Amino acid sequence: MLEHPLVFLDLETTGATPTSDRITEIGLVEVANGRVLDSWSQLVNPQARIPPFIESLTGITSAMVENEPTFAQIAPQLFERLQGKILVAHNARFDYGFLRNEFQRLGLNYRARVLCTVKLSRALFPQHRRHNLDALIERHALTCSARHRALGDAEVLWSFIRKLYEEVDTASINAALAKQYAQPSLPPRLSAQALDELPDGPGVYLFYGEGNLPIYVGKSVDLRSRVWSHFSGDHRSGKEMRIAQEVTRVEWIQTAGELGALLKEARLIKDLLPALNRTERRHTGYFGFERDPSLDSARPLRLIASGTLEASRLENLIGLFRSKRAAQSALTALAVEHGLCPALLGLEPVRAGNAPCFSHQIKRCRGACCGKEPLAAHNLRLFEAMQTMRVKDWPYAGPIGLREHSEQRTEIHLFDRWCHLGTAQDETQIYEVLEVRGAPMFDLDIYRILERALRTRRKGLELLQFGALASSWYRDRPARATPD
Description:
There is one protein chain. This protein is an alpha+beta fold and 484 residues long. It folds into four domains: 176 residues, 2-Layer Sandwich (Nucleotidyltransferase, domain 5); 91 residues, 3-Layer(aba) Sandwich (GIY-YIG endonuclease); 103 residues, no CATH class; 77 residues, no CATH class. The chain is built from 18 helices and 15 strands. The strands form four sheets. Strands 3-2-1-4-5 form a five-stranded mixed beta sheet. Helix 4 links the parallel strand 4 and strand 5. The chain is elongated, with a radius of gyration of 30 Å. The N and C termini lie far apart (65 Å). The relative contact order is 0.07.
């Protein structure tokens, strides 16, 4: 690494979104052959108000930058400093994204090889959980002249790299660098520029071919790495090869976290039916058994398919299976184990005149089909045997929200009785989402996504409970009129 011209860079900005926020300070350290050539810093007038939170964090106020040059005024000098050098930054996509957007507004196409010190630290010290700049300063005993100021943080990065060569063998450093620098070969009809703006955060991505519908939909907690990974392995999988041959453009939808990405992916695959999501398309439905609450019923179970059960009827749903065959096989095994009647369960035709079923003749059925066992006793035994297969009871008094946070966005995912009602961007939209027309339908994929989210409760998910009153409010509210 040290054999190449490097520029260690840090930016302070008005916010976290490169397309709308602006740079307020630039600091850089130029290094060649392992020696510092120059250090440079400059306050920048963002031509926008600096939010109070940013002022508090960095100490850079709107008054401080009011008479400083704009980015356009310093762009020629900065562009020359950066040309031909590897850009080294902490969470490098952030700084690189801001630079590219600022230069692009001026008609300058800035491209550089980028080295991210966050990724480098994770690769070399996987035993540690935290890799932000404060963690690196503490862990490696680094000093910082001015934390959250551009030049001070850029100098820390140069100190970190020098410290690496004292603490880690060169071969391990070179291997980590080679992995970062490796660039997969892009499909012939997809340009590298099309992927430059891919974010590092969570979301859903859509690969398009020649048509208007996507050929593949995927999700990831790191969109950039996941999309690029498709093109580094196109020789190992038929699906990846087809993607590489057909893809012409990529779109993405950012989410606040993993849960939002899972929900969005599940919905898009059902709505758009991408050709290469074959496995997910095959498994989007379910089969289950709806029980007759009456213990005296001669048909205690009814096999139902995906999309036919409202959430209000979930209390009578037993079993969730990906195919009709799997549902019938599970019920057959249960009948054999507990001496149940296959005819009453719909597994074989009912014989005329209360004639005993075949299983009774071979002493596997206790005779509910021919009156030797009361229907109530048979059905009670059936339902007790199926208890472990029941859909879990909804554990809340009404609808809930799961709030996800990220640096750039907040989302509140709303659920009731295992059904996804929608996603609000903030608290003011919650009751707009709850004003649904008609009863929500049960979806197996959503059920499994939500059940796992509630069971594991990953860091960053905040539970909001609205209670029975809210549940009644939105369920009983008349449908809103549709404008002409």
